[in-house]
TrEMBL record:
<keyword id="KW-0547">Nucleotide-binding</keyword>
<feature type="region of interest" description="Interaction with tRNA">
    <location>
        <begin position="308"/>
        <end position="309"/>
    </location>
</feature>
<feature type="active site" description="Nucleophile">
    <location>
        <position position="100"/>
    </location>
</feature>
<dbReference type="Pfam" id="PF03054">
    <property type="entry name" value="tRNA_Me_trans"/>
</dbReference>
<dbReference type="InterPro" id="IPR046884">
    <property type="entry name" value="MnmA-like_central"/>
</dbReference>
<keyword id="KW-0694">RNA-binding</keyword>
<dbReference type="GO" id="GO:0103016">
    <property type="term" value="F:tRNA-uridine 2-sulfurtransferase activity"/>
</dbReference>
<dbReference type="Pfam" id="PF20258">
    <property type="entry name" value="tRNA_Me_trans_C"/>
</dbReference>
<feature type="site" description="Interaction with tRNA">
    <location>
        <position position="125"/>
    </location>
</feature>
<dbReference type="GO" id="GO:0002143">
    <property type="term" value="P:tRNA wobble position uridine thiolation"/>
</dbReference>
<keyword id="KW-1015">Disulfide bond</keyword>
<feature type="binding site">
    <location>
        <position position="37"/>
    </location>
    <ligand>
        <name>ATP</name>
    </ligand>
</feature>
<feature type="active site" description="Cysteine persulfide intermediate">
    <location>
        <position position="196"/>
    </location>
</feature>
<feature type="domain" description="tRNA-specific 2-thiouridylase MnmA-like central">
    <location>
        <begin position="205"/>
        <end position="272"/>
    </location>
</feature>
<feature type="site" description="Interaction with tRNA">
    <location>
        <position position="340"/>
    </location>
</feature>
<dbReference type="GO" id="GO:0000049">
    <property type="term" value="F:tRNA binding"/>
</dbReference>
<keyword id="KW-0819">tRNA processing</keyword>
């Protein structure tokens, strides 16, 4: 008797990456079925879920595999979108894609796939996973320019243990060529960018639908008033556009950057030097970390870390402090932003990460919080 092939449920988004992921799994001998997730419901949204669903269905017809669909819109609004709003209201800059992966794509999706009888789940993320007797290891993709482990660091280790990433060894051009050869109508489809529930709409206008604006003054690091801001939630550290400032009173025409936020006084602090000491930090503190491996902090390992997606991993040291981590970098990091995530690596393995709580900029003689006690 021939044993049954393992069933893999692939999260099909209607894009080229998940389309090729499904194809590669079929070619590898798995029994494959697709699942399309509706995660956002808003008539004013530019997220064309109906079009994406039709693209996913077209791919499944080409591959002759079933396509399931499910709505996680209520879960997304409660567990991702509300967090997004709360963080902006608190003056921080969140990354909803990280939370969406943890809560929706690798938790609710996994539970639903298991109800469908799945042995594995798979997505079109650019990452690799090594399944070993001691657990799954999340590894960076072969295409370092497309590597998405930064966005995957917060998923549950139990979910990683039953996940496949069929694109981990491919580059984006290779994925598009495979899709072209297969005749997928998604082959030349434009990659999705930005946050789906905002789409191409004006970001500030979108936020004002949900949060009250609190205009205030814009000052330089010496406290001199330069103008007004629309509300601290509309700005992030290192931001250059949208400040409405020309040359300075000192006569230089250099561009202005957001250096800091004074939340207590509702002031936006700006300066003209991209490498201003207020934008450079060697130390940051985090919320409670999430690890994909046994907690490495007792060993005080020398690791590498990223404070943004496309950054090259930087040398650092970590230690537990105040319920989170203190991270000290070998070299100053630019625009370390509370609300974003710091993600840790040991060579090609992603170990986990944490949300950034605070930072010490180079022009601060003392920490911004009591972290050296």
């Amino acid at each position: 008797m021939v044993p049954e092939r393992p069933l893999v449920i692939v999260g099909l988004s209607g894009g080229v990456d998940s389309s090729v992921a499904a194809l590669r799994l079929l070619e590898a001998g798995y029994h494959v079925e697709g699942l399309f997730m509706f995660n956002w419901e808003d008539p004013q949204s530019d997220c064309d879920a109906a079009r994406d669903y039709q693209d996913a269905r077209s791919v499944c017809e080409e591959l002759d595999i079933p396509l399931h669909r499910v709505s996680f819109a209520a879960e997304y609004r409660a567990q991702v979108f509300q967090y997004f709003l709360d963080e902006y209201a608190a003056g921080r800059t969140p990354n909803p894609d990280i939370l969406c992966n943890r809560e929706i794509k690798f938790r609710h999706f996994l539970h639903h796939a298991r109800r469908l009888g799945a042995d594995w789940i798979a997505t079109g993320h650019y990452a690799r996973v090594m399944h070993t007797a001691t657990g799954a290891r999340l590894l960076t993709a072969a295409d370092r320019d497309k590597d998405q482990t930064y966005f995957l660091h917060a998923i549950d280790p139990e979910a990683l243990a039953c996940t496949l990433f069929p694109l981990g060894e491919l580059t984006k051009p290779e994925v598009r060529r495979i899709a072209e050869d297969a005749g997928f109508r998604t082959a030349r489809k434009k990659d999705s960018t930005g946050i789906c529930f905002i789409g191409e709409r004006d970001f500030n206008a979108f936020l004002t639908r949900y949060l009250p604006t609190q205009p205030g003054i814009m000052v330089d690091p010496d406290g001199r008033e330069l103008g007004t801001h629309q509300g601290l939630m509309f700005y992030t550290l290192g931001q250059r556009k949208g400040l409405g400032l020309g040359g300075s009173r000192t006569g230089t025409d250099s561009p202005w950057y957001v250096l800091d936020k004074d939340l207590a006084c509702n002031r936006l602090i700006v300066g003209q030097n991209r490498d201003h000491p207020r934008l450079l930090s060697t130390t940051l503190w985090t919320e409670r970390p999430h690890w994909l491996v046994p907690d490495p902090t007792p060993e005080r390992l020398n690791l590498q870390a990223k404070v943004r997606y496309r950054q090259k991993a930087q040398g650092c040291r970590i230690r537990p402090e105040n319920g989170g981590l203190r991270v000290d970098f070998d070299h100053p990091q630019w625009a370390v932003t509370p609300g974003q995530s710091v993600v840790f690596y040991a060579q090609e393995q992603c170990l986990g990460g944490a949300v950034i709580r605070d930072r010490r900029s180079l022009d601060h003689a003392v920490p911004l919080m009591e972290s050296d006690a």
